[in-house]
Structure formats: structure tokens, C-alpha cells
UniProtKB/TrEMBL annotation:
The organism's place on the tree of life at top rank: Bacteria
Origin organism lineage: Bacteria, Bacillati, Bacillota, Bacilli, Lactobacillales
Residues annotated as transmembrane: 7-23, 29-48
Entries under InterPro entries matching the protein: DUF6095 (IPR046077)
Pfam families, sorted: DUF6095 (PF19589)
Assigned keywords, A-Z: Membrane, Transmembrane, Transmembrane helix
UniProt protein name: DUF6095 family protein
Entry keyword annotation includes Transmembrane helix: yes
Length: 50
């Protein structure tokens, strides 16, 4: 279950990052990119807890 959730978070993070490249406004671009990166690293943290 945890692995499925983390893979889903990876996909969502990458999807948000790809959406950010299509954004016209610079503020929207940085906002979506930072959210995508945050979800991506959250997925890594879920897979490898300290």
C-alpha cells in the first residue's frame, strides 16, 4: 500500500512539473513547479523514512 501511494505521488509530482512548463505566467510557473518538486520529494521521504 505504501509503495503504491509513493508511486502515485511520483506520477502526480512529475505531472504537475510538466504542467508548469506550459504555464504562461512566471508566477504560476514557479508555484506549480515548487508544488511538483515538493510532492516528488515527499514521495521519496515516504519510500525511505529516516
Amino acid at each position: 500500500m505504501q509503495i503504491i501511494l509513493s508511486i502515485l505521488m511520483f506520477i502526480i509530482g512529475i505531472a504537475i512539473m510538466t504542467i508548469s512548463f506550459k504555464a504562461k505566467k512566471e508566477s504560476v510557473y514557479y508555484l506549480t513547479l515548487s508544488i511538483g518538486v515538493a510532492i516528488f520529494f515527499a514521495a521519496i521521504f515516504v519510500i525511505f523514512p529516516k
